[in-house]
Structures are given as structure tokens and as C-alpha cells.
Amino acid sequence: MNFNVKKIAFAIALATASSFAAWDYYNIPEEHHGEARVRAHYWYNGDFHSTDFDVDARFTVVKGLEISLQNLGYQFFANDHDGASGNKGFKDITVGLKYAFDPNLYVFIDANIPTGADEVTNNEFSLKTGVQWHLPITEQFGIGNEFALTFPFKHDGGQHGGITADYGFEFYYAFKSGFTSFTGWVFTSQLTDGRDADKKKSGTGSSNVSFWAGSSYAVNKHVTLTLFTDIEYAAHGAYYSGYIFQTTFAF
Description:
There is one protein chain. By secondary structure, this protein is mainly beta. It is 6% helix and 61% strand. The protein has one helix at residues 5-20; strands spanning 34-45, 48-62, 65-80, 89-90, 93-102, 105-113, 124-136, 141-155, 164-174, 179-190, 194-195, 201-202, 207-218, 223-233, 239-250. The strands form two sheets. Strands 1-2-3-5-6-7-8-9-10-13-14-15 form a twelve-stranded antiparallel barrel. A two-stranded antiparallel ribbon has the order 11-12. A hairpin with a 5-residue loop joins strand 14 and strand 15 (239-250). The longest helix is centred in the N-terminal third of the chain and has 16 residues, at 5-20. It is globular and about 45 Å long.
């Protein structure tokens, strides 16, 4: 790979935001209830590796309307195995709204705010908006879906990305034992040109593909443990994998 550490770190941040900016593809909590979760990531690509964590929270303020704060986290390092260090600090945050038209159809908007450290942030404010729908095939098996557009508005040094579209879906099967297995994909395509530091246009037609698979276990009605792996094929041939462990608390 000819990617330096920072480029790979940015690719991971951007692709992860595309995959997980929305909380999930399913229903929101009941009125005056919510969830908080702690998520730890480990990413690698050949000699490159990075570790970070997030704390997220969401709450349904009135029936059908959820607010969320996501990606409140810290990147501990993003470097290669030769001992180089750096690329650490607080990450950008995302704030979101999600509205349920009915139990299985939702619209959402998420705003990425470039609050992170210089070595971690992508210095870009963007809005991601779209629709999600849940198809419960049986009581235990179902499919979550999302179609969304992301609009970038500014980038440090005159840079900015292009408008992107993504379609994602996830299959799940909930066992009576409390385990739920799931697997999903997100396909992302850049619809308009971005501009690099020299203000040259580039990027239209580039695409990313993300795949994940894992399982969760409901310890009780308030605590759920989840472990999954994520594989990202980013633009220009960048490839990397990751492991994510999260604990979710319902309240």
C-alpha cells in the first residue's frame, strides 16, 4: 500500500462514519427511554493499526422522535508496526435526529461536527440524511435497510469531499437464548467531485464497500454485549479490517 498513516486513518474515519453514523437500522426507544453504549475499535491494514473508543447516547424525547450524540471518543494511536506514533486525540462528534413514521419506517439526519484533534479530525462539517425501513420477516428474523445522502460543506485548506450516496442492509436472527446473529453491507458511491488542497476536482464515481458480521447477547433487559468484525474496501484500493466490541445500556 502507498497510503501513509494519516490517509489510512482518514479513510477509516470516513468509511466508519458512512457505516455507523445512524445509530442502527431499526426502531427507536419508547418515549422517555434511551440507550447509552461504549464501543472499542481495533483496525489494521498490513503494518498499519489503530485503536479508539466511542461513547454514544440516544433518547426519545417525545413519541417517535429520537435525539442522539455519537462518536464522542478518543483515538489512542494510528501508526504502523515500526513504532511510529501519533494521530491520537479526541474524535469528531455526530449529533442526530431520527423520526419514526410508524414502527418500521424512519427518517433521520446526522451532522458530523469537526471538533476532533488536528491529527484525527477530517476538518469537514457534513450532513447525512436518509430513510430507514425494517422488514420483520418472522418473529425472530428480519432485515434492516437504509438509503442516505451525505452533503459536505467545508474542509480545511479549501478541500471538501463530494456528495455521496449509500445503501445499507443488515440481516439478523434472534435466538431464544438471548443471542442475536447479524451480518450487513453498505455500498457507498461519490456522486459529485470533491476538491483537493490544490482545488483540483476529483472523486466522482469512486466507491466504498463495507461488510460486517457478528453477534450480540442480551445479558438482561438493560445490558447487551456485542462483538463483530468489519471489513472496508475504500476508494483507490485501500483495504482494512477491524474488530469492534460494544456494551449497550438501556434505560
